[in-house]
Predict the structure.
Amino acid sequence: MRIYLSRPHMSGREEQRVAEAFGSNFVAPLGPQLDAFEASVRDYLGTDLHCVGLSSGSAALHLALRIAGVGPGDEVWISSMTFAGGVFPVNYLGATPRFFDLDAESWTIDTARVAEELATAAVQGRLPKAIVPTDLYGQSVDLDPLEDLAAQYGVRLIVDSAESLGATCRSGRKAGTGGDAAILSFNGNKIITTSGGGMFVTRHEDWADQARFLATQARDPAPHYEHSTYGYNYRLSNICAAIGLGQMEVLESRVARRREIFARYKAALSHPGLTFMPEPEGVRSTRWLTAMTIDAARTKVTNEDIRLMLLDHQIEARPLWKPMHLQPLYKGARYHGTGVDERLFRDGLCLPSGSDMTDAQQDEVIERIAGLLATTS
């Protein structure tokens, strides 16, 4: 039986919600299930926020950057270790990404380095239009100091929380509540899924209104199709939102299960050459994926050796995100850091972490890794 890295997992509550959507005949992009899903996420994150259901997390980022005024010639400062969909919207708008390294203690954007570069950029008159830090593998960035920096320099802050719904940062705030806007993803591999989808979350009511307008083809109020600007077909479907309603009911149990899976891996694979993603004091990661690094000098095996061995047994594992500044597309892009993210990519591996993975399946993963390490000791 194949063991997947992370795959969609239905709770049993979704079918009823979808049946209600079919029963009401709201199968078009808008409907009561979408309204209810947006309200459910808002109630979870905080009622002072506004939520707009969209077709993907990338769509949410695209809208956030456009509403923030990003355009040709602008810079967007962004975490280099992230999924490509968390950067491509910068290109859609003709702007230029400038990439930043991670802090080794949190595996999230190096806030101190961002602060240093903002001070330099302010003197040189080249401040970015927006900063986009990434919540990596279910761990939230430290929201408060980033918000303070954005306010100090008058820069928009858009937090990529695509991987972190259910997490909290050091101050206890929930991932997805930070900045001028935050983005969520409900892709099939996320901790909860709508099969595909995302959410635009903002404290600014006018930003939410603009997001809804742009996401529905920018139709001006008129009995005919009137357009004073261009928009997109970015709204989440009512049927997908119905799935999301059922998934929201089990979000906290999913977080608990992922954290349990991480703890079992860490306890069972105690080896001086294996290091697991840290969790700073006061932070609660969802452990969306269990991420670790392998010191090949101490283990005598590489992350790729482990990945290929697991693949031979139909067990899916995957390297950490390749930093964007190392991608051919962004060759020559400006990068600020010491290569923490480069070393994590070189040595890192994500282990199967799906909420539906059984203890027996996890034990097989553990035993196979431990067996490989034993043959090289």
